[in-house]
Amino acid sequence: MLLDMSETDVELLARYTRQRAEDAFEELVRRHLGLVYSAALHQVRSPQLAEEVSQSVFTDLARNAAGLSHSQFAAHTRLQLWVERFFYFCLHRLDRSEGGEDRNRTA
Q1: Which CATH number is 9-97 given?
Q2: Tell me, what's the pLDDT at 106?
Q3: Is the distance from CB of 2 to CB of 15 less than 8 angstroms?
Q4: Which residues of 6-36 are buried (b: 16+ CB within 10 A; e: fewer)?
Q5: Are 42 and 13 in contact (CB under 8 A)?
Q6: Which residue has the higher pLDDT, 27 or 92?
Q7: Of the candidates 88, 86, 79, which has an alpha carbon nearest to the alpha carbon of residue 31?
Q8: How far apart are alpha carbons 5 and 3 in whole angstroms?
Q9: Of 53, 79, 91, 98, whose CA is between 20 and 30 Å from 47?
Q10: Among 5, 8, 19, 1, which Cα is nearest to 65's?
Q11: Stated pTM of the model
Q12: Angle at the Cα of 26 from the Cα atoms of 80 and 39, rounded to 5 degrees
């Protein structure tokens, strides 16, 4: 299926959940990866950890996409808000997995 560049994030997510349309999910990642990676790099100061956080955000989005659907986005209609919230959850999880070490250390 050809990607409609005018599709909103919510429409892409809905198409991904209904049709398992990989192109829709790839477009979501393309739209939001730079912001997620930049924010992660700013927080963890390690390119490798920033990649792990970014991958975790989008892996969990793919895993939980069906449960998110329109009900969660009706008020905001922006996937970016969910991605931002989950980004901080992933950082917290990373911090706990590293024994609470200072995540702002230099790599």
Answers
A1: 1.10.1740
A2: 44
A3: no
A4: eeebbebbbbbbeeebeebbebbbeebeeeb
A5: no
A6: 27
A7: 79
A8: 6
A9: 79
A10: 19
A11: 0.71
A12: 40
pLDDT tier at 70, thresholds 50, 70, 90: low
The answer for 45, left when phi > 0, alpha when psi is -120 to 50, beta otherwise, is left
The backbone region for 84, taken as left when phi is positive above 0, alpha when psi lies in -120 to 50, beta otherwise, is alpha
Handedness of CA 21, 27, 32, 34 (dihedral sign): positive
Domain segments of the chain as ranges? 9-97
**Site of tokens 């808000």:** 81
